[in-house]
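Batch manifest line 335
LIGAND: thiamine diphosphate
JOB: complex structure
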Amino acid sequence: MTTATKPTTAIDLEHRLALYRSQVALRLFETRAYDLFLENLVKGTSHLSLGQEAIAAGVAAAMRETDWTFATYRGHAHTLARGVPMTPVLAELLGRANGLMAGKGGSMHLTSVEHGVMGSYAIIGAHLPIACGAAWSAQYRGTDQVAVCFFGDGTTNIGAFHEALNFAAIWKLPVVFICENNLWMEYTRTTEVTAVAHPAADRAGAYGLESILVDGNDADAVYDVAARAIARARAGEGPSLIEAETYRHGGHSRADPGKYRPDEEVAQWKAKDPVPRYRARLVELGVDEATLVAIESEVADEVEAATEAAKAGAIPGEDLLMKDVWANGGSSWRN
Ligand SMILES: Cc1ncc(C[n+]2csc(CCOP(=O)(O)OP(=O)(O)O)c2C)c(N)n1
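JOB STATUS: finished
ARTIFACT:
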């Protein structure tokens, strides 16, 4: 097993500052989303990934604009990290007409093809074969695009996970699977219902893949393993599976206080919070306080502006109900 937990020294300061900004943006955005939920403004359910920011930020930093992201229902961070602006994402959570999906999709269906965000998937595991399909399309068409697919630890017990890995391996598809192991499924501890300790990494070998385990609360380490896996995929060397160990600060979804998790476990992981940890690393590297404060206040302003714009968005009209429901692509292709 390859365990990559040491921060890489290959990342220059400019990229590190960008990684910090990205993590701060994900943190402040979702903190605001939670506040808006408490104000009863967020429509439908939503799943936050507070505490897991280093993964979305680190992986996105290693991707090219033309690469594809396949996100989960816990996909705000996956979407924002690819460069989708905050306003349409927040407006979507609020069910407004200026939302990313015009207010019809909500938190769990964020998609932006122009940013390579090829959907958020609420049926767990469903998107792994779909990511393989996208990767196959890139391989078939001879483009050098790579599909990156995020999923949780619990998802590794779904059949589609195993089917997709086998399929990706035998066809050497340019796909990178990222398991965000936050230790918990919906309300169940993953190790209680899983035969191996590392739900993704321990199974990689069964499909001929290297086992890659990374500290998912260290954006540099995540960036490092993701960059290597993506480069391999782009070079035609086939798929990779990365298990990033992390913890979500909150419960499963917005309505779950997560009280079933031991207090010491929550405290232990909060002490490894990726955002202050990365900030401390930058300070150690000699970045001055004013630079960090400037980044934080720019991001805070961005969240403020997005909140105002989202709240000002119109409530969609009833005509939206029947819009984009059915695409008549014709049937001539069958002939
Ligand atoms: C096929 C399917 N079964 C059950 C569910 C209900 N469900 C939603 S999330 C979830 C747990 C997923 O846990 P994990 O993959 O560890 O991701 P996390 O929520 O911790 O990010 C379950 C069982 C679902 N959405 N799809």
